[in-house]
Amino acid sequence: MRRRTVTSGGLDEVLDSLASAQPAAREEAAPAPPPARDQQAMRSEFDFELPRGYVDDEGQVHRRGSMRLATARDELRPQIDLRVKENPAYLSVVLLSQVITQLGTITDVHAGVVERMYATDVAFLQDFYRRINSEGHTHAAVTCPLCHGSFEVDLSGGRLGES
């Protein structure tokens, strides 16, 4: 396949030549059907609240954040990271740092931030990552240990007992 480099001045010429070369194809093509109203847009970012919270250098605690769905590149990139090659357990740190888009007021979440999180928060984020990327939601079926009633909770945020 040949590539053609077009400057902004030549772009109009290319578009005009394409328009005149395929007018019949455009006329025969049926208009696209409107999107179904009951179809929801795919959610690609999920909010969460850490059990303990990340404490930054100034002592401020960051608990709320958001994580996006992982791409194939996100899953492959840690495999070539030297830190992961030296210590395979570091894979989750690198992976989480790529998909966490915000943590409180921090928008640049990097491996150093994830390294300094409490172990309970990292475990929470690993489970959260697994849930949104494999199951596509943040809901979990639970059973009350006292009454044995079954119900569903949303793991994406809010404190237990709050309504």
Structural commentary:
With 163 residues, this protein is an alpha+beta fold. Strands 1-2-3 form a 3-stranded antiparallel β-sheet. A two-stranded antiparallel sheet has the order 4-5. A hairpin with a 5-residue loop joins β1 and β2. 37% of the residues lie in helices and 20% in strands.
- By DSSP (H or I, 4+ residues per run), the number of helices equals 7
Low-confidence stretches: 1-8, 158-163
Structural class computed from helices and strand pairing: alpha+beta
- Amino- and carboxy-terminal Cα gap: 59 Å
Task: Assign a percent range to the helix content.
Answer: 25-40%
The neighbouring-strand order within the major sheet is 1-2-3
Portion in beta strands: 15-25%
Number of strands: 5
SSE string: HHEEHHHEHHEE
Largest sheet: 3 strands, antiparallel
Output the radius of gyration: 24 Å
List key phrases describing it:
163 residues; alpha+beta; three-stranded antiparallel β-sheet; two-stranded antiparallel ribbon; 37% helix; disordered N terminus
How would the blueprint of this fold be written?
Blueprint: H1 8-21, H2 23-28, E1 45-55, E2 61-68, H3 72-76, H4 82-86, H5 91-99, E3 100-103, H6 111-115, H7 119-135, E4 139-143, E5 150-154
Antiparallel strand pairs: 1-2, 2-3, 4-5
Quick recap:
With 163 residues, the protein is α+β, with helices and mostly antiparallel strands. The chain has helices at residues 8-21, 23-28, 72-76, 82-86, 91-99, 111-115, 119-135; strands spanning 45-55, 61-68, 100-103, 139-143, 150-154.
